[in-house]
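chain below, 300 aa
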Amino acid sequence: MPKLAPSNTPDILLKLTDYVGINLFPPAQLQQRGPSCGFSALAYTLEYWHEKLKLTVPPPLPARTQMSMDGALAQTREDKETKRKNAAKGEFVSLRQFAKFNALTVVGSVFSAENLLRVATHAQPGVYEGLVDTVANVDEFAARILFWLGQGVPVIVPYDADETDSEPIENTGLSAHWVTVLGCCSVGGAKQLLYFNWGAFYYAPLAKFALSNLQLRNNKHVPFRKYEVYRDSAAIATRTPIIRDYMTAETVKLYQEKHKLICVEMVDKEVRTDRQYNDPATASSSSSSSSVSSAAIGAL
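prediction:
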């Protein structure tokens, strides 16, 4: 799937005569870390409203407390205990922390549009609100996406993503992923959705997104184990991982076989399970409204 080059911001698409969507693009954030795609999509959406309504909307919470590995590795037990105590008082430092504290996720995966919307509206009470806009068929998916984009509202969309390039595929929800759709335009004679994902901007056919979204049906428990990922044996000797997080067996296999990295399971850590459940849905965001499933999320 085409990825916009770093030198090409989404602003170049605004010059296309049939472009519909937002016209202000917050800078790409740090790469998603760990199983937290829903929070990454939501964080970018909330950042859009913060940029658009800067005088009235406070800065949104980040997707997770430590967006970089350096920060994660520097965390102490005392830091974690302080976060836990503050959370008990209703003070949160990230969207993921709020969701974990309120039992909406175990390690970071969110498979419910309603739960993602709850994070948007309750992590910072009185700032964002929204709705879940459920769709029933391909035509309705396209119509609702274009409606929200026409209102200048980003849309958070769940679909099955190819593990290498995030291309929409059909895998019954086993490859479920969330992204923020920012706009739509015609490229090569077909309507393409512009979206933010994995710290960059991509575009893919609207028709593929619709088909992928509508076949999300899988319902199962997904086990996660905690691993440290190293570039080579020398890095293991100095205990300098490039990644430390909970992962599925499929992610570990991808790191080992495609990227030739070394994955070491942290055997003292418990196996954690997130429940995977999907309904055809999307999410959008806007001033004084937020949404998910086909939905809109915005600022009060």
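Residues 221-276 form one domain. The chain has two domains: 10-217+278-299, 221-276.
thats it, cya
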